[in-house]
C-alpha cells in the first residue's frame, strides 16, 4: 500500500510538471468567432456579419456590425439572410435521401424525367445522368437564360443586379424548358468541372417527378422532419419580408434588390436564419444516412479536391477531409464548412457581395480554424500525458 501511494503521488507530481501550463491558453470558440467578425468587418465595404459554429456538440452564434451603415441595426437570430448557392447542398441532400430510399439511381439519364426528349442533352451518344448534375460535370451552362452568363461576367458592374432582375422578371419553368432545347453539350461527360446552376434546377425537377410534390414543399417537410428547421424559405411570405437582411452589391453604397426568383429556386434562392443554420450544421455532422450519402466523393479532379452531392470535398493538413460550399447573390456571400475531424461545422455570412468578399471571409475563418486546432492539440497533449 505504501509503495502504491508513493507511486500515485509520484504520478501526480509528474502530471503537474507535464501540464502545458506555461503555454498560452488556447482561445475559446466564442473569442475566435469575435476575432473572425472583427477581422471581416475591417474590410472596407463590409457592413455586418453573422457566424455560426457547431463544435463537439456545442453551438455558438455571433452577430456583429450594422446591416445598414449608421442605423445601428445589428443582425439578430430573427434576421433572414440569402444563402445563395449553399441552397444547392439542400437539393443534393434531398436527392441523396431519394437514393437511400431506393427511389432513384445516380446513373439514370436525366431525360427520362424531362417533359420531352431533349436529345441535345448528351455527348458522344452518352446521355447526361443524374450523377453528372450533382458533380457539375454535365457540360450544362451556368445559368439559363443564356444571356445571364454574359451579365455575370461583369459581376461588379453596378448595373448587374438590375439586369438580373430584368432577365428573370417573367422567367419561369416554361421559359426554362424552351431554353433547355437550345443548349449544346461539350463532352466528355463526367470529366470536366463546369459549375452549373441549371443542373441544380433540373435536380429539383427530378425530385418533383420522383415524389409527385413541388420541390418547395418537399424541402420544407424534409427539413422540419429531420432537423426541426422551420425558418428556411425559398419564397418569403408577406409577414417575413421585413426580416430579410438588406445588402450591398460591389462598391455601391445604396442597398440593392434581392436575388431574383429562379424557376425552381434550388440553385440559389434559399433564405435562412442563423438558428436554423445551426440545425442544418448539426444535421450535416449527425451521421444521418442521407447526409452520409451526400458526402460520398463521386468525382475527383485533384488529389485534394473532389465533389459529392454538390459539396466540394477538400483535403488539408489542418482540417483533414472537409466539405465546403460558397454561396453568393448580388447582395450577400457566405461559406459553409463541415469538418468531421473536429466534429466542427461553421457558417459565415455577410450582407455584401463583391470580388474581394470571399477572400475576406476565408481570412476571417482562419481565426476559428486556428483556434479549434489549438484547442484540439491541447486536449491531445493532455490525453497523451495521462
TrEMBL record:
PROSITE patterns: BETA_LACTAMASE_C (PS00336)
One biological process term in Gene Ontology: antibiotic catabolic process
EC number: 3.5.2.6
Keywords: Antibiotic resistance, Hydrolase, Signal
Record-linked Pfam families: Beta-lactamase
MF (Gene Ontology): beta-lactamase activity
Domain of life: Bacteria
InterPro entries in alphabetical order: AmpC-like, Beta-lactam-related, Beta-lactam/transpept-like, Beta-lactam_class-C_AS
Domain Beta-lactamase-related: 49-360
Reactions catalysed, as given in the entry: a beta-lactam + H2O = a substituted beta-amino acid
GO CC field: outer membrane-bounded periplasmic space
SUPFAM superfamilies: beta-lactamase/transpeptidase-like
Enzyme class, spelled out: hydrolase
Signal sequence, renumbered to the chain: 1-23
Protein family (similarity comment): Belongs to the class-C beta-lactamase family.
Name under which the protein is recorded: Beta-lactamase
Organism for this UniProt entry: Rugamonas rivuli
Amino acid at each position: 500500500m505504501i509503495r502504491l501511494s508513493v507511486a500515485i503521488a509520484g504520478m501526480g507530481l509528474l502530471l503537474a510538471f507535464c501540464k502545458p501550463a506555461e503555454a498560452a491558453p488556447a482561445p475559446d470558440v466564442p473569442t475566435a468567432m469575435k476575432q473572425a467578425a472583427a477581422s471581416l468587418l475591417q474590410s472596407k465595404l463590409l457592413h455586418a456579419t453573422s457566424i455560426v459554429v457547431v463544435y463537439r456538440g456545442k453551438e455558438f452564434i455571433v452577430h456583429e456590425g450594422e446591416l445598414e451603415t449608421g442605423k445601428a441595426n445589428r443582425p439578430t437570430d430573427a434576421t433572414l439572410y440569402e444563402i445563395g448557392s449553399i441552397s444547392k447542398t439542400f437539393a443534393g441532400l434531398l436527392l441523396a435521401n431519394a437514393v437511400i430510399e431506393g427511389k432513384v439511381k445516380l446513373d439514370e439519364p436525366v431525360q427520362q424525367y424531362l417533359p420531352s426528349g431533349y436529345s441535345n442533352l448528351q455527348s458522344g451518344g452518352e446521355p447526361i445522368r443524374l450523377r453528372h448534375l450533382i458533380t457539375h460535370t454535365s457540360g450544362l451552362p451556368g445559368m439559363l437564360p443564356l444571356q445571364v452568363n454574359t451579365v455575370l461576367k461583369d459581376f461588379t458592374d453596378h448595373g448587374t443586379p438590375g439586369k438580373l432582375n430584368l432577365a428573370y422578371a417573367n422567367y419561369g419553368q416554361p421559359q426554362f424548358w424552351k431554353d433547355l432545347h437550345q443548349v449544346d453539350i461539350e463532352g466528355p461527360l463526367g470529366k470536366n468541372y463546369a459549375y452549373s446552376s441549371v443542373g441544380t434546377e433540373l435536380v429539383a425537377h427530378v425530385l418533383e417527378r420522383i415524389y409527385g410534390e413541388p420541390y418547395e414543399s418537399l424541402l420544407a417537410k424534409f427539413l422540419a422532419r429531420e432537423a426541426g428547421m422551420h425558418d428556411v424559405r425559398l419564397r418569403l411570405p408577406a409577414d417575413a419580408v421585413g426580416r430579410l437582411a438588406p445588402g450591398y452589391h460591389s462598391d455601391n453604397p445604396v442597398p440593392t434588390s434581392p436575388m431574383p426568383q429562379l424557376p425552381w429556386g434550388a440553385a440559389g434562392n434559399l433564405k435562412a436564419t442563423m438558428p436554423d443554420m445551426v440545425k442544418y450544421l448539426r444535421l450535416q455532422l449527425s451521421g444521418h444516412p442521407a447526409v452520409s450519402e451526400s458526402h460520398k466523393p463521386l468525382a475527383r479532379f485533384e488529389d485534394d479536391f473532389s465533389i459529392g452531392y454538390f459539396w466540394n470535398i477538400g483535403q488539408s493538413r489542418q482540417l483533414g477531409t472537409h466539405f465546403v460550399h460558397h454561396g453568393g447573390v448580388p447582395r450577400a456571400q457566405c461559406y459553409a464548412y463541415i469538418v468531421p475531424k473536429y466534429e466542427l461545422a461553421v457558417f459565415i455570412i455577410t450582407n455584401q457581395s463583391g470580388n474581394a468578399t470571399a477572400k475576406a471571409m476565408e481570412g476571417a475563418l482562419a481565426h476559428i480554424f486556428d483556434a479549434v486546432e489549438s484547442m484540439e492539440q491541447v486536449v491531445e497533449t493532455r490525453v497523451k500525458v495521462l
